[in-house]
Amino acid sequence: MWPPACQVVGLLEDNLAATPEQLGDAAKETKEELADRHERALAASLLAIAALADVAAPPPQGAASDRMAGARCLLPEEPPAAS
């Protein structure tokens, strides 16, 4: 059995290689419905691959502090004084 990450990548790869007819039932759906489903599957798969790449790739030099800049503004500059 493949690790979960490999299974996800495999499913995304299958989605990208699938035809509209493979993602739906041509006997029950119109060509437009099949094309819409295919487009949504492609878009979702590409977004998932981009998200995986973003998580897996190390941040560029100096980018870690830039990415945390927005989070820092939510934190107090100094911890509250103990009473």
Describe this protein with a few key phrases.
single chain; mainly alpha; elongated
Please outline what is shown here.
With 83 residues, the chain is mostly helical. The protein is 65% helix and 0% strand.
Written account of the structure:
The protein is mainly α and 83 residues long. It has a domain at 8-57. It is built from four helices and no strands.
Q: Runs with pLDDT <50, length 5+? A: 67-76
The number of distinct helices, counting runs of at least 4 residues, comes to 4
How much strand? Answer: under 5%
| Biggest beta sheet summary | none
Please give the number of β-strands: 0
Helix content: 55-70%
**Strand-pairing-aware structural class:** mainly alpha
Question: How far from one another are the termini?
Answer: 56 Å
**Average of per-residue pLDDT values:** 80
Order of helices and strands: HHHH
Shape: elongated
Q: What would you call the quaternary organization?
A: single chain
Backbone CA Rg: 21 Å
Topology:
Layout: H1 4-17, H2 20-23, H3 31-56, H4 63-72
